[in-house]
UniProtKB/TrEMBL annotation:
Transmembrane portions of the chain: 49-66, 78-97, 103-122, 134-154, 160-179, 191-211, 231-250, 257-281, 293-313
Cellular compartment(s): Cell membrane
Recorded topology in the membrane: Multi-pass membrane protein
Name used for this protein in its record: EamA family transporter
Key words, A-Z: Cell membrane, Membrane, Signal, Transmembrane, Transmembrane helix
Signal peptide: 1-34
PANTHER family named in the record: INNER MEMBRANE PROTEIN YTFF (PTHR42920:SF11), OS03G0707200 PROTEIN-RELATED (PTHR42920)
Domain of life: Bacteria
Xref: InterPro entries: Diverse_Substrate_Transporter (IPR051258), EamA_dom (IPR000620), EmrE-like (IPR037185)
Length: 323
């Protein structure tokens, strides 16, 4: 039996859309911040390990003191917590950096951005929920725009393992949306975020233990927006602005935002990341990137115009009429 959409109240959807957009703007800031730290001599794995460990260490005590009940989970929630932490936090980070170690960053970003299409396919095929044509058109346009923003044609060298890692990161990203949606509607976002960050940090620490880093590397100088600042201050900003806040905002948005729409809004990340790289790192945007950014934004607008999103599917009424 076909399943149709259930309307979300306009004010709730507007707030959720704003929160989700803010989440991806903040996530995009992590690119420039991490690039500044790596330019100071840090490896991608080390940046990721310290980023997640610091984020978990900062958020968990705050939640434990201010909202202790948010950290209480039942035995049945174990699969959700592990899945969200391993896929939505640690897996995305590890596989993305494994991809960029073998293929150009732009290509890796485009591969990761397959996630919105995977989420939409899951909603349509597994849940049996009908998505308006505007949603599919918006996904297609936003994906094409991200290709222009990333300028994938500039480096043609592709490595099969790198491509596989990029697609793996896309699968993990899709898991972030679907598991996050499931968890955010049953648990407090702060508790779920703190637990997920802690699990992801442990996973990444197995590959790159943060405690093995030399203390001198924290006092190295990073250049950001023409300013010379200690690496530890950039890492702190990366943990708070580029990790804790976007994960919190994204989970809160998934309470009221259809997961397919949230996936499309994620395509704003490469656009904002390119703009921040221009402002903070001096990496100028070309005509193709500007055109791609406009196409991504237009695709996101089309999805917004598709009408109320899906929170829970409902069967068609007799005669084919929708609720």
């Amino acid at each position: 039996m076909a399943v149709t959409e259930k309307a979300v109240p306009a004010p709730s959807r507007a707030r959720a859309t704003a929160l989700s957009s803010l989440s991806w703007v903040l996530f995009a800031s992590s690119g420039s911040l991490a690039a500044a730290v790596m330019a100071a001599g840090w490896s991608p794995a080390a940046v990721t390990s310290v980023r997640l460990a610091a984020a978990a260490a900062l958020l968990a005590p705050v939640v434990a003191v201010s909202r202790p009940w948010a950290l209480r989970f039942g035995r049945a929630d174990l699969w959700l917590l592990v899945g969200y932490g391993v896929l939505g936090v640690g897996g995305v980070q590890l596989l993305f950096f494994a991809a960029v170690a073998r293929i150009p960053v732009g290509v890796a970003m485009v591969l990761v951005n397959v996630a919105p299409a995977l989420v939409a396919l899951w909603v349509r095929v597994v849940r049996g929920i009908r998505l308006p044509r505007l949603v599919w058109m918006g996904i297609a346009l936003a994906s094409a725009g991200s290709v222009l923003v990333a300028q994938v044609w500039r480096d043609a060298g592709l490595d099969l393992l790198g491509v596989a890692a990029g697609l793996g990161a896309a699968l993990c990203s899709a898991g972030y949306f679907l598991l996050g949606e499931h968890g955010a509607r049953r648990h407090d976002p702060a508790g779920l975020t703190a637990t997920g960050l802690a699990i992801g940090a442990v996973l990444v620490a197995v590959i790159a233990p943060p405690w093995t880093l030399l203390s001198e590397s924290l006092t190295a100088v990073a250049v950001l927006g023409g300013l010379r600042v200690p690496v530890w201050t950039v890492l702190l900003a990366l943990a708070i602005v580029g990790t804790v806040l976007p994960y919190l905002a994204g989970l809160r948005a998934l309470r009221d935002l259809p997961v397919a729409l949230a996936g499309v809004l994620a395509l704003l990340e490469p656009v904002v990341a390119a703009a921040l790289a221009w402002l903070l790192l001096g990496q100028a945007l070309g005509p193709a990137q500007l055109a791609g950014a406009a196409i991504v934004l237009f695709g996101a607008v089309l999805v917004q115009l598709a009408g109320p999103g899906t929170i829970a599917g409902e069967p068609d009424r007799p005669g084919g009429r929708r609720r």
